[in-house]
Specification:
Blueprint lengths: L11 H6 L10 E4 L1 H7 L13 H8 L4 E16 L2 H5 L3 E18 L2 E20 L8 H9 L1
Antiparallel strand pairs: 1-2, 2-3, 3-4
């Protein structure tokens, strides 16, 4: 899908053909001119010349410049470890695997002028929760809340 988006050729209608529609696509954020300026702000070490020419031209027309940001995450969660410790809430360990990608599509009026992607092709994480008192761990909090 990303490869089919061609800067200075693809229009908003073409994005809708690729199922990128601000009204229906989940995890899509609309960014205005100010959001883009914050994202591409150049500090004292960098100047505006380091930005792509089409991006600079779009930012110069202010309100006619906007962007679509798509974040897509796919994760699988698998409980591992001792069944009994997990069941009685003493120790829970979960392996998290998957991937994440972000796409930024900059539009001037309804024409795509710039595109950028980033992501993590291989997410690997372990979530571990320990409760020394097991199923009694939260009893004190619930009794305190009930008395208030």
């Amino acid at each position: 899908m990303f490869a089919k988006i061609i800067p200075n050729q693809t229009r908003l209608a073409g994005l809708k053909d690729l199922q990128i529609d601000p009204a229906t696509t989940p995890n899509l954020a609309l960014l205005n001119h100010a959001d883009l300026l914050r994202r591409f702000a150049t500090g004292s070490a960098l100047t505006a010349e380091v930005l792509d020419e089409s991006l600079r031209a779009c930012l110069a027309v202010r309100a006619r410049c906007s962007a679509l940001e798509i974040e897509h995450v796919h994760t699988d969660r698998k409980r591992v470890g001792n069944f009994w410790l997990d069941t009685f809430n003493f120790r829970r360990k979960v392996d998290v695997t998957g991937w994440r990608y972000n796409i930024l599509i900059v539009l001037q009026d309804d024409l795509v002028v710039y595109k950028l992607w980033s992501g993590k092709p291989n997410i690997r994480d372990v979530e571990e929760e320990r409760n020394p008192l097991g199923p009694l761990q939260g009893v004190g909090d619930s009794l305190l809340r009930r008395s208030l």
